[in-house]
C-alpha cells in the first residue's frame, strides 16, 4: 500500500514534469521555419541563464489500462544555490486521488516531502518527512520526487523543443497581459531527449515513455524567454495534454524548509 501511494504521487509529479511544450498547427513558408527555429535556439540559450522562476502547470492524461488522470500545481525554482518548492494541489490517477495533494521542498542536502496519506501509512506524527540526498539511492520511491523536480529545469524543457524540424510562427498573442509570439510544431521524443545532459536522459525517457511524436506550442516574449508551453502527445491509446505558464524570471524567491518540529525521518524498511 505504501509503495502504491508514493508511486501515485510520483506519477502525478511526472505528468506535470512531462508538460514541456504544446500543440501543433499549419505549415508556413520555409523562411518562416528557419526564423522560428532560430527563436527556439535562442530561447534555449537564454533559459540556461535564468536564475529563478515560477511555473504553474496543469496536465490531463488518459491511459487504456491505468485510466484517466489530472495533475495541477506550481513550482518555485532557484538555480544557485539549488532550491525548489513544488506543490501539487490535485493528483488524480486512475480514479484514485491523494487527499491534500503533494508538497516537496528541495534545499541543501535534503528533500522534504509532505503527503498526508504517506504520513498515515508510515505512522509518523510529523507532517513532513526528510530524506538526505546522500541516502537517496537507498530510498527508491522518495528518489522519484527528486528526479521529477529536476525535470522542471526550464533550460532542459525548452531544449527539447529545439529538436523540432517543422516549427512555424503562428502569430502574436497576449499571455497573462504580455505580448508574445506563438510558435507551433512537433518533436520526436527520441531525438529531443538526446539533447539533454547524459545524466538526465533516462529520466526524461521515462517521463515521456507513453508518447512518440509530441506536438507543441510555445509563446515567447520580447526578452526571448517562454511565457507558456503546451504539450499534446499520444501513443497506443495513451494521451497527454498539458500546459505550463512561466513567470517571475530572475526575481528573488524565498524557499524555506519546514520547521524542525514538523519534520520526521522516513522509517527504515519503507523506502524500497
Automatic annotation (TrEMBL):
GO CC annotation: what is one? cell envelope
Give the principal location in a single coarse category: other
**Compartment annotation:** Cell envelope
InterPro entries attached to this UniProt entry: LolA/LolB/LppX, LppX/LprAFG
Origin, by domain of life? Bacteria
According to the record, the signal peptide region is: 1-26
Q: Which SUPFAM superfamilies match?
A: Prokaryotic lipoproteins and lipoprotein localization factors
Q: Which UniProt keywords apply?
A: Cell membrane, Membrane, Signal
Return the Pfam families for the record: LppX_LprAFG
Q: What family does this chain come from, according to its entry? A: Belongs to the LppX/LprAFG lipoprotein family.
Q: Under what name is this protein listed?
A: Uncharacterized protein DUF1396
